[in-house]
Amino acid sequence: DLQKCFPRLFVKAVSSNKIIGLFGQELAMPCTGFPYSQKSMDIKDPIVIIVSHSGGTFGPLACSNLLQSFSSSIFAVTSEWDTQIGKQLRSMYSDDLLSSRIFSTEV
């Protein structure tokens, strides 16, 4: 567990649809039963890992596009290297040291 190994590290698994609901609209959509809000969720320069089997569904793809304004450290785990989200993240910063942002499960 990353939280136990690194107690000062803030690790949270959050649905991409919840992130889009909170930060991707002009008027934040309240999420019933969801413990985070725009005020309680500090996302200043986070390290983001997006997990999507297909790499092309709306939620993760829109979330990766949205979070590019918050962070340059966005990574994806998908079934193939050449997916829609992979293309989007590879085009982000081609000269960056961490230009390989896509991890493939090859399933």
Write the SSE topology.
Elements: H1 2-5, H2 16-23, E1 47-51, H3 58-67, E2 73-78, H4 84-90, E3 102-104
Parallel strand pairs: 1-2, 2-3
Question: What does this protein structure show overall?
Answer:
This protein has a three-stranded parallel beta sheet with strand order 1-2-3, with helices on one face. The mean pLDDT is 80. The two termini are 25 Å apart. Strand 1 (47-51), helix 3 (58-67) and strand 2 form a beta-alpha-beta unit. It is 27% helix and 13% strand. It is built from four helices and three strands, in the order H-H-E-H-E-H-E. It is α/β, with parallel strands linked by helices and 107 residues long.
Q: Which consecutive residue ranges, at least 5 long each, have pLDDT under 50? A: none
Cα separation of the termini? 25 Å
Characterize the biggest β-sheet. Answer: 3 strands, parallel
Radius of gyration: 14 Å
Query: Strands of the largest sheet, in order across it?
Result: 1-2-3
Order of helices and strands: HHEHEHE
The helix count comes to 4
- The assigned structural class equals alpha/beta
Annotation, overall tally of beta strands: 3
Percent helix, as a range, is 25-40%
Provide the β-strand percentage band. 5-15%
Mean pLDDT, rounded to whole units? 80
Which overall shape is indicated by the principal axes computed on the Cα atoms? Answer: globular
- Indicate the multimeric state: single chain
